[in-house]
């Protein structure tokens, strides 16, 4: 058992190991909420499914960084993932979808994330993980957000961003289906933004002059006037 052999283990990276759920469960059976010292866990690029989350609950006490990208997760809710200490979460290249078509994907915004990566997660306008007004302040520490390579279409996403996430430094929105105009005040409100990628969308109109503070702006393959 990992925790018995290495009781003070703080960082564990087992990416690209062709791990299955059956391999993961016995490996971590001995971890418990009260004793685990693990703060960084990377199990990305394996063949894990949603059942793996059963043992992830063992790390809720101290886990700061969790990397789950490129697995076979199909998740309708993360509201049960009570990782209150988590700062970085990468779920890219998995499928996040609500149970019913009319529902929103339920995200756990009880955590003050600093970096959130949801690249290629089958997100659309109807299932983008929205915070409620009561917990929107929990997004105030978010500095990097990647929701590229999804199916977002409405420019409403820009209003959502500057209403809830005003301290972003890096924002990836490329390779969606975004249409319409970017709000003129988007750049003024998002005045901490240093990197913005809007490439490969269907945005129209002019690039707002308020983008003047952005040091890196990628906008190719849109319909700018």
Mind explaining what this structure looks like?
This protein is an alpha/beta fold. It has helices spanning about 1-5, 20-25, 55, 155-165, 185-190, and strands spanning about 10-15, 40, 65, 75, 90, 95, 115, 145, 170, 180, 195, 200-205, 215-220, 225. It contains 5 helices and 14 strands.
Brief overview, please?
The protein has 225 residues and is an alpha/beta fold.
Task: List the topology elements.
Elements lengths: L1 H4 L5 E3 L7 H7 L12 E3 L10 H4 L8 E3 L6 E2 L12 E3 L4 E2 L18 E3 L26 E3 L9 H9 L5 E3 L6 E2 L5 H4 L5 E3 L4 E4 L10 E3 L4 E2 L1
Parallel strand pairs: 1-2, 2-3, 3-5, 4-6, 5-7, 7-8, 8-9, 9-11, 10-12, 11-13, 12-14
Key features?
single chain; 225 residues; alpha/beta; nine-stranded parallel beta sheet; three-stranded parallel beta sheet; elongated; signal; transmembrane helix; membrane; LRR_dom_sf
Give the overall pLDDT as a whole number. 80
Beta percentage is 15-25%
Query: Order of helices and strands, N to C?
Result: HEHEHEEEEEEHEEHEEEE
**Considering DSSP H and I runs of 4 or more, what fraction of the residues is helical?**
10-25%
Question: Total strand count, please?
Answer: 14
- C-alpha Rg, in Å? 19 Å
SS summary, helix count: 5
| Amino- and carboxy-terminal Cα gap | 61 Å
Unreliable sequence segments: none
- How are the strands of the largest sheet arranged? 1-2-3-5-7-8-9-11-13
- Shape assignment: elongated
Helix/sheet category = alpha/beta
Report the sheet with the most strands, covering strand number, pairing sense and barrel closure: 9 strands, parallel
Main location: membrane
Protein name: Putative non-specific serine/threonine protein kinase
Membrane topology: Single-pass type I membrane protein
InterPro entries: Leu-rich_rpt (IPR001611), LRR_dom_sf (IPR032675), RLP23-like (IPR046956)
